[in-house]
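Please review the protein record below. Tell me whether the encoded fold seems credible here:
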Amino acid sequence: MLEDNKIPEKHDLTILLPGLNGSGMELGQLPRFLEAAGHDILIPEVPGFLFGEPASHFKTWISRLHQIIDEKRHEYEIINIAGISMGATLATVVASQRTDIASLVLMSPVLKYDGWSVPWYRPMLDLLYLCGLRNWEYSEREPFGVKNIDLRRRIADKFKTSKVSEVGASSISAKHLHQAKGLMSAAHDGLHQLTARLLVIQSVEDDTCSIWSAEEILSRCRAEMRRVIWLGNSYHIVTIDNEREIVLNEVLHFISQTSAVERHIVDIGHHDNRKVLKLRVGYE
């Protein structure tokens, strides 16, 4: 909580979350695009979620993001969260546990892996994990979440010399996938508490998750303001695929609109009606 009568020095911050075991490269030009328009951005360090470290428990990802937001609330009047893929799922969980998130942008949110390119044996991997066979990794394969053929070719070439690219890591560990399952369940269970202004951007041809996840979020959340953009010429990583310019402009418009509305509210209320944090049952 902010100290009484202490007004943050800066206006708005958008926290950007890449996908599971991914990096900032998955966000494409979005960080620079928002910054060029005058919005501060942050791609936070979430150990065990992003590429470079072994997977940690999904509840530590949630707690870490809460901690970051609490710290930034002392600097910024407005906090927005935007995420892609499992980053969108993480954003959904955290936003559903707070009332001080001005807006939430979900790009290709995942509540279950049911896209057309997910192998038929995917559920068996969960069974292997539960049986104690956990020393394995799931390797990414074409189309890598990208419809653009030229970009897909470049990603395939990059994976020959690097373990991470614009679509995330070349492989993902069994523990990452297991913790992702817990995160997806937590996101689904908390949808009825989600009240932040909401923008969902979803491809109808998503190879990783079907439109079910986006539709479930839109139908079950309690956001008074919700908007959805359906894309018809992209797969999962919409920030870098064929319709990336649409994504960039829609996100910028939504964040800018939220900023303008919140600035007006703050100017009228003089911080007398600051929102308070919801009880985070089970996530401390």
User: Anything to note?
Assistant: Residues 270-284 have pLDDT under 50 and may be disordered. Residues 25 and 166 are 5 Å apart (CA to CA). DSSP finds eight helices and ten strands in the chain. Strands lie at 10-17, 40-42, 76-84, 103-107, 137-139, 164-165, 168-169, 171-173, 197-203, 226-231.
